[in-house]
């Protein structure tokens, strides 16, 4: 906007001012008028910048200032912003409850390569995490072959969720080395990813009775702090056979595997904590695993020292830690979600499952079963009728794509639960309900 300036010149001396002087004065005013508008605009912008800076910070001020100059070319700025947005844009999340994730530890020994490989394919899902371990008793060739197979599997490479422990550990079934190996796997999983909800330990002799879609779907509504640990404080025959004897596991200090040996005298039962025993196969919450590994309370470390000389420590360590911690005891569910056929009273090892046990396994509603021998016909029956799994391929799931099925990744968030989810849900609902009533919790 141009300013209209009228100038009145009063001649106080009654003498006329020279015309040249008047022209000089008008020219000076014209120059001042020419620069007045830019000066006002610049002042307004500076004031606005100071106000916005004090209110929102420098970054947002620059953005606000840039928006004032909308008439300037902005193609380059928009292009840079678009690239940055594409780089940080998160993957689309599914609607509804967040799908849980499981962290598996699958362990085996000499001759278990094919069993581990089959179990891995049966329980694989792209959202889960897996740590595999063949102990030091297995041959170097077996361990190298397992590593090579994992490296060559393109889906494992794409997801990066299968890890093979390279430095094999000595495992003695009745000694504390199995607990040490399990804690090792827990530490690896915590280091590799925080994106999982439950830890599951399996042996090469375990096999699933439901698909991973069934398992993930069933646990959608389950409290993520719950720990599935089959347990009891009634030691009975284990009091004299397990708790009181003192053993030493040579696997803790020797490079060759040998059986544990007993030392004398026996020890008394502890009085500073209460012993619990149960299944060695557990489903532990992420929170509990952190508690055991990090040990912000000294209880996990103290009990680890105690169970170093305990017969079959995997059947008592996690149970005793959980039930002697006031916070963790509230989260214990008295079930391992396994179908296991034991003698009465139980012996060191359970029965070997065969086709004759199929109906009982299915009726149990369990997620897993053990103990199986390699390539038993019952495993083929489970693959065909429960898992819909073809030889050498993964268990069918909503994520599967490609030809043949499950050779490529599809939508990893797509769950297609089947009848197995109904069976498992009935079992999980019942044992969780029992835990909430505290009737079967740390008793």
TrEMBL record:
Tell me which UniProt keywords the record has, alphabetically: Glycoprotein, Glycosyltransferase, Membrane, Transferase, Transmembrane, Transmembrane helix
Instruction: Indicate the principal place this protein occupies in or around the cell.
Output: membrane
Query: What Pfam families does the entry give?
Result: Branch
Under Gene Ontology molecular function, one entry of this record is: glucuronosyltransferase activity
Q: Per the record, what is one GO cellular component?
A: membrane
**Topology class, membrane:** Single-pass type II membrane protein
Q: Which PANTHER family did the record assign?
A: GLYCOSYLTRANSFERASE, OS01G0201100 PROTEIN
Record-given protein name:
Beta-glucuronosyltransferase GlcAT14A
Q: Which organism is it from?
A: Arachis hypogaea
